[in-house]
Design goal:
The protein has 172 residues and is mostly helical. The protein is built from four helices and no strands.
Length: 172
Amino acid sequence: MSGGTEPGQAPRDKKEPPRPGSVRPTSRRLLVAIAVLGVAIGVTMVKAIESGGGVAPAVSWLTLIAWAFLAALLFAAARNTNQRIQVRRERMEPSRAVFLLMIGKASAFVGALCAGVYAGFALSFLQAMGSSGPRNRVIMAAAAAVISVLVVTAGLLLERACRIPEDPDETP
C-alpha cells in the first residue's frame, strides 16, 4: 500500500501546505544543523589559529552583554507583538509584521550559528581546563553559547507571535 491519498480523502500528513504569500515556520532541524556547522567552524578556527602560531580569540564581557541585550530586546518585541496580534487581535501594518517576522527568523539563524561557534570555542579549550586562562575561556564561551540559545529562543517566539490568528467566525 502506498502512502498517498485516494481521491476524496484528506491527506494523512497533518501538515498543511502554506497558504500563498505565507512563510513557513523555521525548522528546528535546520537550526540544529546550523548549530552543528557552527561547532565545526569554532573548533576549526581555534585549531587553525593556534597551529599558525597565533592566539585564539577569547570571548569578552562586552560580547556577553551585547548578546544578552539583543536577547532582551527580542523577548520584549515578541511579548509586545504577541499581545497585539494574538491577545488583543489588533491589526498590524503588513510591512511592520513582515519586518518583525524576518528579524525573528534572522535572529534564530544567526543565534544558532553563533551558539555553535561559541560551543566550538568552549570545546577547543576544554582539554586545558586545569589552568585559569583556559578555564575562563571555556566559561565565557559557554556563557556566550547559552545566551546565543536565548537569542534563538527569542527569535522563534517573535516569529511565532507574528502568525495571523485563525478567525473563529470564518468557516470554510
